[in-house]
Amino acid sequence: MTEANTSSIMTITGLINNKIMKHTLPPLPYAYNALEPYIDAQTMELHHTKHHQAYIDKLNAALEKYPDLQGRPVDELLRNLNEMQINDADRELIRNHGGGHFNHSLFWKYLDPANQKDELLVKEIISVFGSIEDFKKQFGESATKLFGSGWTWLVRNGANSKLEIVNLPRQDAPIMSGLEPIFGLDVWEHAYYLKYQNKRADYIAAWWNVLKLI
Ligand code: MN3
Does 3 score more than 60 pLDDT? Predict the structure, then answer.
């Protein structure tokens, strides 16, 4: 998507096209109250319209001085972060805010109430972790132990194609380290604090009710 750029930071590309490619907030494909009572409408709306939007705004701001990087999909930016000819402070901004944009865009899809159970995935989880219950226990323990802000992910390791549970700090996206995300749980306090306060374990337990994939 594009939008007219009227700011004073006008790049060459911008001058030619009078437009700059910007990252935009993907609409939530279901209502904010669709995940009640497990994830409340107020948390969903703030999380989507304020937190996710803020990552996008800051990503766009970080890209303003790099016309060549504007318009590149966020996953491409994250996979190539270390090869880019940019200064380290901007690399850190793109890592954090690009990661935030990428992770949240996936998160809303994982939570879609219209999702169907993925039978192939279920089989694979059982073969790796023993049972769905064992998997949930292991994933939940990992998410409970994650110190500070970050995400717990079920990923496929690009090196050996195996499913793994990993904790990643802050907004580090799995694809930055060769891991393909299957699904992930946001355990930043902003994802649950209004309803669950300090009880992260209760939020994790409730989350299985909205994840229809397994
Ligand atoms: Mn979040």
Answer: no
The C-alpha angle 140, 154, 83, rounded to 5 degrees, equals 130
Cα 14 to ligand 1 centre (Å): 31
Instruction: Report how far ligand 1's centroid is from the alpha carbon of 101 (Å).
Output: 9
* CA 178 to centroid of ligand 1, rounded, Å: 22
Q: How far is the CA of 116 from the centre of ligand 1 (A)?
A: 23
Reported as a single tens digit per residue, the pLDDT across 45-66 is 999 999 999 999 999 999 999 9
What's the CA-to-centroid distance between 107 and ligand 1, angstroms?
9
Tell me whether residue 53 is exposed, middle or buried, using C-beta atoms within 10 angstroms of its C-beta: 0 to 12, 13 to 18, 19 or more: middle
Ligand 1 center to residue 32 CA distance, Å?
A: 15
Superfamily, domain 3-14+39-110: Fe,Mn superoxide dismutase (SOD) domain (1.10.287.990)
* Ligand 1 centroid – CA 191 distance (Å): 5
| Distance between Cα 16 and ligand 1 center (Å) | 36
> What are the pLDDT digits (tens) for 175-189?
999 999 999 999 999
Q: Which residues of 167-200 are buried (b: 16+ CB within 10 A; e: fewer)?
A: bbeebbbbbbeebebbbbbbbbeebbeebbeeeb
Least Cα distance to 151 among 106, 192, 184 occurs for: 184
Domain spanning 119-207, CATH architecture: 3-Layer(bab) Sandwich (3.55)
pTM of the model: 0.90
